[in-house]
Amino acid sequence: MKMKAAVVRQATDPYKFEEIELAEPKNDEVLVRITASGLCHTDEFGRTLGMSPIVLGHEGAGIIEKLGENVKDFEVGDHVAFSYAFCGHCKSCVQGRPQYCEKFNDINFGGVGADGQSKLSQNGQPVAMFFGQSSFAQYATISEESIVKIDEDVDLAMIAPFGCGVQTGAGAVLNTLRPHVDETLAVFGCGAVGFSAIMAAKVAGCRQIIAVGGNEHSLALAKELGATDVINRKQLPAGQTMAQAVQAISNGGVNYAIDTSGNGNMIQNAIQSTCLNGKIVLLAPSGEVENFDFGKDVLMAYRTVIGCCEGDSNPKIFIPRLVQLYKEGRFPIDKIITKYPFEQLEQAREDSNAGKVIKAVVTME
Fold first, then answer.
1. Enclosing domain of residue 354
2. Cα separation of 195 and 301, whole Å?
3. Cα angle at 327 between 218 and 349, to 5 degrees?
4. Mean pLDDT of 133-145
5. Do the domain assignments include residue 325?
6. The sheet that has 229-232: what strands, in order across it?
7. Residue-wise pLDDT tens digits, 66-120
8. Are 270 and 156 in contact (CB under 8 A)?
9. Residues in contact with 270: Cβ distance below 8 Å, sequence separation at least 6, in sequence order
10. Same domain for 133 and 26?
11. Nearest C-alpha neighbor of 20 from the set 55, 58, 67
12. Are residues 290 and 240 in the same domain?
């Protein structure tokens, strides 16, 4: 079928709306009319992969319009949120940990699906896919394994970001670290991922939640979302590091720290901010993490540094949990979302990159 999609041909090009072809759903796939899609920094990373042309977008949500012959768990008209693609057959997938699929990079960042083919084309030539969905488009043909049913009374524009950025931050807390109510946590970086971690830490009942950032407006929002303390890294006393500032207000260091930046200095400070036997989770895309020195900061203090993909989340289990928390008012994702019409995708991108908005979501209707 023909549809409108936002196509990128060069890494620095703006999004350009073009007509392309979308393949019909196969046996285990569904055709979804996309109603909303979040923008994520990973879309910017996708521009650097050297695939041209490509349709980006990987935080989609919409309404099912057609089912493949073997689809049993969904019906036409179901509201669904998208998440990442996975093979379903490797050791990790069979063990219920699709976030660590052995083919994760190939089928999410390789421009094709698990079958080695793209579902997108233009004038008979393939157009690269992204994350098995390419949600900056009017429609998506997507595996039933990569979608999660959402109650119809929930605004899909609020839920679309759950498929990547939100579950990454929230999952790092609730799935990876699983803190106890009397424990403490610091989050380095106040973007959508960091705010999701802060909201999750409040849900977990952490006694102290410290947000470390460089923008007063963002830090004020962090407190509104659950941070008990905030540190402006740009306003530290002369000679004081971020880690020292955290240690000073946490009685010698936090139990856990999360870095969402990928910045080598931030990572080093996150490590140093924890107490003995502390745990540190790194969330930035692997291609964007700067080098940092483990050294005695880790070994001699019995600390653990953890790499975490998609918040350690199985979307079919974790996204419904987050949706329920949102419906209960305990995970107020709406406080960080700014909506744009689909036609203003490039403006949403510019505003996101400039830090004018926390989480941009484009809506198709």
1. 2-163+332-363
2. 28
3. 40
4. 98
5. no
6. 229-232, 208-213, 184-188, 254-259, 274-282, 304-307
7. 999 999 999 999 999 999 999 999 999 999 999 999 999 999 999 999 889 999 9
8. no
9. 186, 188, 243, 257, 258, 259, 280
10. yes
11. 55
12. yes
